[in-house]
Amino acid sequence: MRMSETVARVPVPPEGLRPGQLGVVAIGRVIIGDVTATLVDLAQRGLVRIDEDTTAADGGWLLTLAVGARSRSAQSAAEYEQVLIEGVAGAGKTGSLSVLASQLPDTLEKTRHAIVQDAVRRGWLHHLHHDQRTDQGEELVLRIRAFQRDLRHLKSAEGPQALTGRLLPYALHFGLTDPAQDLLVRFAHAFTATFADLPGWKLPEHTRPPMVLSEVLEKPSIDEQMMDPMVQAGVWLTGW
């Protein structure tokens, strides 16, 4: 067998789908993991720097906009990503901040609204009923499942190190990372745990069958795991 045949193909998100758009297509609503994955994606693209705040007594995280991030995002970022970037910029006087629930709820809400509107404009969700996918959205969900399977195959073939860089935010959403893998993964779990119980973000029980992310993406998101007391004990073992 030739060497080229032993190397797994690097998966490409369908329709250029960004990590923050996964939840809204899959279940018709935005979950906190979508915002988390977006922040990790912005960090991978060099627009935001994420650091652990080792000086804080109870721990914490710092988000710092890169030089020129706001002007660069105007050219490359989706509208909902720009909303999040502007929120980071406005949350602290110096452009950096500790990620605390008391500082970001307004930005989270604005980002959620922007993600939903983005999905409607792209034709994935019906305008009047945002939790109902269009035919285009239904087709996209099937391609998301295939993308997830491709990522799993890549991890099996080349190990977890293959799901780094631009693939990391997607791997986070699909539960393909180790919670202690690296700084960005630790941040993702900490951020999601911090904000998942904010009003309006915790998945209500009535959205479970048939419209849950686990059924669409074949594994529970961290949001769903935290919602279900039966699996809370295993959240750090199973990932999200």
Question: What do these coordinates show?
Answer:
- There is one protein chain.
- With 240 residues, the protein is mainly alpha-helical.
- It has one domain (3-238).
- Helix content is 50%, strand content 5%.
- The protein has helices at 3-6, 22-27, 32-44, 69-76, 79-91, 105-121, 135-158, 168-173, 183-195, 213-217, 222-227, 235-238, and strands spanning 48-52, 61-65, 96-98.
- It has a 3-stranded antiparallel β-sheet with strand order 1-2-3.
- Helix 3 (32-44) packs antiparallel against helix 9 (183-195).
- The chain starts with a helix and ends with a helix.
- 39% of the residues are buried.
- The model is unreliable at 1-5, 206-220 and 222-240 (pLDDT under 50).
